[in-house]
Amino acid sequence: MWLILAVVVEAAALLGNGALLVVVLRTPGLRDALYLMHLCIVDLLAAASIMPLGLLAAPPGLGRVRLDPASCHATRVLSAALLPACTLGVAALGLARCRLIVHPLRPGARPPPSLVLTAVWAAAALLGALALLGPPPAPPPAPARCSVLAGGLGPFRPLWALLAFALPALLLLGAYGSIFLVARRAALRPPPPARGARLRSDSLDSRLSILPALRPRLPGGKAALAPALAVGQFAACWLPYGCACLAPAAQAAKVEAAVTWVAYSAFAAHPFLYGLLQRPVRRALGRLVRQALPRRPWACTLRTWLPRALLQHLQRPPEGPALGHSEAPEQNQDLAGEEILSVPKAT
Fold first, then answer.
1. Which DSSP helix (H) or strand (E) runs through 312?
2. Is the dihedral of CA 273, 276, 280, 281 positive or negative?
3. Which of 161, 165, 195, 335 is the most exposed place for a label (fewest CB within 10 A)?
4. For 217, phi and psi rounded to 5 degrees?
5. Predicted pLDDT of residue 343
């Protein structure tokens, strides 16, 4: 069952990130297009490299294939580099959206995305290089332990966990917390009076009409949905992995497969959380789907099926000449009388 769930997560990561990357590339004008493309590329790299190794390899994954020392070192370096690239990329996307919402009229305060993404990959490369300083893999009778959890980084595991998980979590929490505060402040602000609107009278009826409802909603409740989902998904996927990195290697090895695949599920959740929940991405996806589907020819216009148009069509007089009173066929009186006599009386 765990293997089937892991295959489902792998397929969702590949298909979801591939579809979102196509939508972003075919839709010019998206505000955070470079950050979304970067996140999709990192997720696709992880889904094509470390996730299949997690399916097939023995100790870090769910399979029974034993890796040689070279493959084990490559797995460590890829895991130690791609996981921080993903978490730091999510934090960079959150900060970019925060700057767009909190400071929309200050373009000079936003650094270029290329500079931010270069810094992300430089930090990921440095964290990946820490895996080369860890202990060598164990000889064949013992498990190789090719992941960063069970001895892959040696004494650098706490430092790697703080830079790869704690720092992006703080940045993401600060960014989405600022977005929520701005949205809540805008929801609490009363709307400005319209031009030419009449001033309210000071009567009792006028005062009662502006009283709040009996059950007022929480201001900014709808605006809190996206920050809560983003922060909740990050904490649910990456917090167990980060805590396992801070634990001793012997205890982390017991929960290695479980926390690893919980962290890998973030690669499958990103296309839905940062793609389908965004209105511009949904509109672009719907437009591309409509363009891809073949259009069937319609025999009539849509207006014909409207109730008013259909009723007017039914009430329209017939096109042929109407028969007058003199042209109507005369009814046989005898036959009519026989029909009337044959019909029983109604009680």
1. helix 307-314
2. positive
3. 195
4. -80, 160
5. 46
